[in-house]
Amino acid sequence: MKLTSPETILFNGKITTLDAQQPEVTALAIAAGKIIAIGSDLDIQALATELTLAIDLQGKRVVPGLNDSHLHLIRGGLNYNMELRWEGVGSVADALAMLQLQAARTPAPQWVRVVGGWSEFQFKERRMPTLAEINAVSPDTPVFILHLYDRALLNGAALRAAGITKDTPDPVGGKIQRDTNGNPTGMLIAEPNAMILYSTLAKGPKLPLSDQINSTRHFMRELNRLGVTSCIDAGGGFQNYPEDYQVIEKLHDDGQMTVRIAYNLFTQNMGNELADFQKWAGIVKPYSGDGYFRQNGAGEMLAFSAADFEDFLQPRPDMAARMEKDLGDVVRFLVENRWPFRLHATYDETIGRALDVFESINQDTRFDDLRWFFDHAETVSEKNMARIKKLGGGIAVQHRMAFQGEYFVDRYGKKAAEQSPPIRKMLEMGIPVGGGTDATRVASFNPWVSLYWLVTGKTVGGLSLYSENNCLEREEALRLWTAGSAYKSNEETVKGTLSPGMYADLVVTSSDFMTVPDAAIKALTSVLTMVNGKIVYAADAFSQFDAPLPPISPDWSPVHHFGGYQSPETHYALHANACIASSCAVHGNHKGHDGKLSRWLGLDSTEKQPQFENPWAMGCGCFAY
Hints:
Elements: E1 8-11, E2 14-16, E3 24-25, E4 27-31, E5 34-39, H1 41-45, E6 53-56, E7 61-64, E8 66-71, H2 73-79, H3 92-105, E9 112-115, H4 131-137, E10 143-147, E11 151-154, H5 156-162, E12 174-178, E13 184-190, H6 195-201, H7 209-225, E14 228-233, H8 246-253, E15 260-265, H9 273-281, E16 293-298, H10 323-336, E17 341-345, H11 348-364, E18 372-376, H12 382-390, E19 394-398, H13 401-412, H14 414-417, H15 423-428, E20 433-436, H16 447-456, H17 474-488, E21 506-509, H18 518-521, E22 526-531, E23 534-538, H19 558-562, H20 597-600
Parallel strand pairs: 1-6, 2-7, 8-14, 9-10, 14-15, 15-16, 17-18, 18-19, 19-20
Antiparallel strand pairs: 1-4, 2-3, 4-5, 7-21, 10-11, 11-13, 12-13, 21-22, 22-23
Helix pairs in contact: 2-7, 7-8, 9-10, 10-11, 16-17
């Protein structure tokens, strides 16, 4: 490329470029939103003029901007400011204290919402909060707490606000837990369909438009703080196009986006999925847009009958007999119209049936170079991976097992978990793989937790799932989160490496990702994030370059008071008078748990692993069940 005078240079750093010719340099130069040169301090500083901004990296590590290939940013942004985050919180006591403090400041008729991204295994108590504890800290303000995609906990006020009574029938695929008198306890259970959880959450009040705009900007800033510069938005339930895209489109039009988004469209109408895509094909074309906001095709939901749910507390669901026809009608239309697509698929059995459909269509309507991939694929077999490879497909993996690996192990055994998903085998077979989170409801949006999982094979609770042969080296994991994700949106020629001609999207990390101890990976943040050559977040030694956003609104927002992703070193219980139960009939204050999950689950014993009809039988009888 033609070399021009740089607008910005970064020097005196440890820059991981992922460029094959110059994999590590100490300096780089930026102009017009792109990298124009990489190399030594001497070479790059020689390019500077009196107008060039020169930033001394002070020996810090720089990596390409992280790209989440499966994030629900558009939906998550609309709600971010009104959600209380338990992600990263270290104890039930602190989680309940946060709940109590937030309930006291949340005005009627708003709810306190804890919507995913956490696992009971992250808490030092190794348990979930009980319904009694939740009602004690918030007797009057409605509370809705989503745990993965398996259940939701509602206090009495939320049951009343949602209109759930003794006479409310169980929906298909879901269960309202009831006491001996038939009254709802506050537990909603996906058996295994999560629609009962989504539909109940949707009953809560929304933020007004101005706050949704503010909320989305602050969510993007939190992602920038964690080093995310791009994502592929996977749509979502109750996310209609184009109605629910007005906020992100306004931010794009106003030049206020700080995360690049390639968005997929997710069908909303069971039984009329094909009609959705036919309508959208007349409105928007794949890859239309620009570098900040572009269309990326269809999915992750293509047909409701083809969606298996990743609730490992429940048996694997069998897809309906009509799956092949429903999915085939949609995919044939997409391939005929050259629409890229992605498909949610947890289990190998679902993947196999979907591949039967794809291969049949390919016989007369060729896929050729059409970009398509499966999302999740925790139990995909080598046989089906070979079929994916042959048909030119890919896989996007997320760290869902980091949040529910314990449940998977209990149901399917430690041996099965060792290759769930078989990431190393995917890479060895040459399948394009992208990294991501599936945030915000099932897993955390923190990319460093995902990178920690890829490198160590451990859950957020510390359970080792994988042996070394299914763990990645740090640079390999980073490639999944950069170049691997860029391939999923057909943008590998402009993002994913810090090479001349590529977008100037980069992250200066708080500590050195390449050398910090494994456990420290999940605590990493950014101290300087650039998108398109512009600084969108800066902290610590680089704070003078930061450009703060407008204040968080509304003023009662949990984000305003607690921030986003939490730290286990923050102890809110010291600042609240939380009415938190400290004992239970079985184990007192839970001293019966020794904190070593492998022993608790019976995994370090030579005896046959026990199986439980009641998944809570392995722990206390005082869990929130």
